[in-house]
């Protein structure tokens, strides 16, 4: 996430506005004040000052009466926040089975404060579930059916057991993102990179389950791809650190 002096004054509410603007930019290339008001359920008297403040901070492009787009710094913050939101919703709703509407509310409350370290570990949980045979087969089923967790009073339908998979046995290998053919679609299973690169990729949205499509290869510069339908450029080193199905 960009760390300029002005961004220290970026409030949770302003980050939410950036997320909303990013949604419309992804959808149609720009946002308007009335779009933002409709999406957020506010009046222009609330949205206009927020938009003005984001413009002053260098996070959006906007002049009176014109369309609103994001600067590169603004887009980085918006995507970072949105990725955290999506991952938290998946954790609360898909893993913990919290009601969907409550999961959305909880994610909104936490997304602004989730550190890179916690984001990293939460992502590793989903990577484990998607890649490790023990995670794929029984882990979630056992968790959801366990009497300690379940609230439906049904008897636990599994027996606790010790798995005998040898230490260091290979998990599902997958393919490298860099090995995709142009136009081929897949989904992310894992990011295997040093912390600095890994955090960059996670903040861009390279989390388990995210959809990718290889758009083109730029010689020596890397690749251009669509990540959940928005364009992203990666170096070849970064592309080789991402595994897909």
Helices and strands in order:
Layout: H1 12-28, H2 33-40, H3 44-56, E1 60-61, E2 69-70, H4 72-95, H5 100-110, H6 116-131, H7 133-145, E3 175-176, E4 185-191, H8 195-204, E5 211-218, E6 222-227, E7 230-234, H9 236-239, E8 242-244
Antiparallel strand pairs: 1-2, 3-8, 4-5, 4-8, 5-6, 6-7
Helix pairs in contact: 1-2, 1-4, 2-3, 4-5, 6-7, 6-8
Please explain how this structure is put together.
With 245 residues, the protein is an alpha+beta fold. It has 9 helices and 8 strands. The chain has helices at residues 12-28, 33-40, 44-56, 72-95, 100-110, 116-131, 133-145, 195-204, 236-239; strands at residues 60-61, 69-70, 175-176, 185-191, 211-218, 222-227, 230-234, 242-244. Mean pLDDT is 85; it is low at 1-5 and 155-171.
**Approximate strand percentage:** 5-15%
Structural class: alpha+beta
What is the chain-wise order of helices and strands? HHHEEHHHHEEHEEEHE
Helix content: 40-55%
- Biggest pleated-sheet summary: 6 strands, antiparallel
SS field, number of helical segments = 9
How would you summarize what this structure contains?
The chain is α+β, with helices and mostly antiparallel strands.
């Amino acid at each position: 996430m960009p760390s300029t002096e002005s961004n220290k004054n970026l409030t949770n509410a302003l980050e939410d506005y950036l997320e909303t603007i990013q949604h419309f930019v992804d959808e149609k290339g720009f946002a308007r004040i009335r779009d933002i008001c409709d999406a957020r359920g506010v009046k222009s008297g609330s949205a206009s000052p927020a938009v003005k403040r984001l413009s002053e901070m260098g996070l959006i492009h906007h002049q009176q009466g014109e369309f609103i787009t994001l600067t590169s710094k603004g887009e980085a913050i918006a995507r970072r926040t949105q990725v955290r939101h999506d991952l938290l919703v998946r954790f609360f709703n898909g893993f913990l089975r919290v009601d969907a509407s409550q999961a959305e509310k909880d994610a909104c409350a936490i997304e602004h404060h989730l550190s890179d370290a916690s984001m990293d570990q939460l992502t590793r949980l989903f990577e484990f579930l998607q890649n490790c045979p023990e995670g794929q087969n029984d882990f979630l089923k056992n968790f959801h059916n366990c009497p300690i967790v379940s609230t439906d009073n049904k008897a636990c339908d599994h027996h606790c057991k010790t798995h005998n998979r040898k230490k260091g046995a290979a998990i599902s290998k997958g393919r490298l993102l860099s090995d995709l053919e142009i136009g081929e679609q897949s989904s992310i299973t894992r990011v295997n990179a040093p912390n600095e690169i890994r955090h960059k990729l996670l903040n861009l949205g390279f989390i388990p389950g995210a959809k990718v499509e290889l758009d083109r290869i730029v010689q020596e510069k890397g690749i251009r791809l669509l990540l959940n339908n928005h364009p992203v450029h990666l170096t070849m080193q970064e592309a080789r650190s991402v595994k897909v199905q």
